[in-house]
TrEMBL record:
This is ATP-binding protein. Keywords: ATP-binding, Nucleotide-binding. InterPro entries: HATPase_C_sf, HATPase_dom. Residues 40-139 form the Histidine kinase/HSP90-like ATPase domain. It comes from Micromonospora azadirachtae.
């Protein structure tokens, strides 16, 4: 399959609309296939990315994402980094609690995304925006 994109380079996508969230899902799926993730793991990482992209849009006021194939010498995987310059998250432990929401959602996006990936890192704080990095490895 040819995708017309150079997967040796990070792929950037803006997140400014619902359509962009769909584009993020498609991009992550394409890169996960290229990294040879199983169908189940593709779906897990796409689901996590969808939740994080929606948070970037809704709470972060929009932002962007970079999707990269990574290789640690043993495995290939997909790394996805979301960044926004929104209000940030003052209490990260609270935000990661199942059911906690400030927006009338289910409060399962962040906590669920964390469970669906192998590595999950957040850099955030009140007034400093939010950067979320997730990695899923092929097994
Ligand atoms: N990028 C972000 N910037 C600022 N706050 C955020 C960001 N992402 C998440 N949050 C905060 O963390 C809370 C929990 O996020 P989470 O995705 O778990 O739940 P939700 O988006 O409220 O509901 P759901 O994702 O289940 O529809 C959000 O309600 C919001 O307060
Ligand atoms: Mg959410």
């Amino acid at each position: 399959m040819t995708t017309g994109i150079d997967l040796s380079q990070p792929q950037a996508q803006a997140i400014r609309s619902d359509e962009d969230v769909v584009r993020v899902r498609q991009l992550v799926r394409t890169v996960a296939v290229a990294a040879k993730l199983s169908l189940v793991d593709q779906t897990k990482v796409v689901t996590a990315a969808s939740e994080l992209a929606r948070n970037t849009l809704v709470y972060g006021g929009g932002g962007g994402v970079e999707v990269t194939i990574v290789d640690n010498g043993r495995r290939r995987g997909v790394r996805i980094v979301f960044a926004d310059s929104g209000p940030g998250i003052a209490d990260l432990d609270l935000a990661l609690t199942d059911g906690y929401t400030t927006g009338g959602g289910l409060g399962l996006g962040l906590s669920g995304a964390r469970r669906l990936v192998d590595e999950f890192d957040i850099d955030t704080g009140a007034g400093k925006g939010t950067r979320v990095s997730v990695t899923k490895w092929a097994r």
